[in-house]
UniProtKB/TrEMBL annotation:
<dbReference type="GO" id="GO:0016301">
    <property type="term" value="F:kinase activity"/>
</dbReference>
<keyword id="KW-0067">ATP-binding</keyword>
<feature type="domain" description="Histidine kinase">
    <location>
        <begin position="25"/>
        <end position="237"/>
    </location>
</feature>
<protein>
    <recommendedName>
        <fullName>histidine kinase</fullName>
        <ecNumber>2.7.13.3</ecNumber>
    </recommendedName>
</protein>
<dbReference type="InterPro" id="IPR003661">
    <property type="entry name" value="HisK_dim/P_dom"/>
</dbReference>
<dbReference type="InterPro" id="IPR036097">
    <property type="entry name" value="HisK_dim/P_sf"/>
</dbReference>
<dbReference type="InterPro" id="IPR050351">
    <property type="entry name" value="BphY/WalK/GraS-like"/>
</dbReference>
<dbReference type="InterPro" id="IPR003594">
    <property type="entry name" value="HATPase_dom"/>
</dbReference>
<keyword id="KW-0418">Kinase</keyword>
<dbReference type="InterPro" id="IPR005467">
    <property type="entry name" value="His_kinase_dom"/>
</dbReference>
<keyword id="KW-0547">Nucleotide-binding</keyword>
<dbReference type="Pfam" id="PF02518">
    <property type="entry name" value="HATPase_c"/>
</dbReference>
<keyword id="KW-0808">Transferase</keyword>
<keyword id="KW-0597">Phosphoprotein</keyword>
<dbReference type="InterPro" id="IPR036890">
    <property type="entry name" value="HATPase_C_sf"/>
</dbReference>
<dbReference type="Pfam" id="PF00512">
    <property type="entry name" value="HisKA"/>
</dbReference>
<dbReference type="InterPro" id="IPR004358">
    <property type="entry name" value="Sig_transdc_His_kin-like_C"/>
</dbReference>
Amino acid sequence: MTESEKKCQEELVVLKKEFEEFVYIVSHDIKTPMRAISNITTWIEEDLGGNADKEVLDNFRLLKIRVERLENMMNALLELSRVSRSEMELYEVNIPKLVNDCIEMLDNKSNAEFHFTYHLKKENIVTLGKKLQKVLFSLLDNAVRFHDKEKKNVFVEVNENETDYEIKITDDGPGIPEGVKDKIFSIFYTVNSKDVVDSTGAGLAISSKIIKMVGGAFQYTPAVNSGSIFTFNWPKQ
């Protein structure tokens, strides 16, 4: 390593530390005043009692929703900054069971039908289980949450290769407009307004960073008729 490369490496370490400290301050210390705003709003509602104007109560409700969303975004930012430092335990997981567990955790799956295709030599793998679960849950949640039809079809396909698993999540929803598909992996970006679909817009950014950390690949392609296809490769080692 040359002297110039060594200096750049040292500066990168310093910048990374400063970034992590900044993220911690933003995502941790700001939570207290945000919660105070929500609490004060609730106290004012209670003081007004039954005589409160409906429009005023609606505005209080919107204020609390905005505060909650901001807190969720701060939590997501903190999670993104800690991808390579938290939940790094290796343990054995069963892939079909892990998929089913993620589906059970979804809170908006009532009108969704899931279809599974597994081509596996072994269902079990020793890996960063929490990280794989995070990616799977995020993609399944997006497939259901952003769906625009009454009946929602979600397809899960897992193929085992020599060195990795190729996992594909497909839906028959609205898809992603061609002009914004390059933005979907950016932190906090959402195709729909956050007032239309409640989401922080951080799931794909966190998933992308996790997959990159483990040495995998992640891509989006539009489905043939409509919908989205998210494919990622998860290394066995």
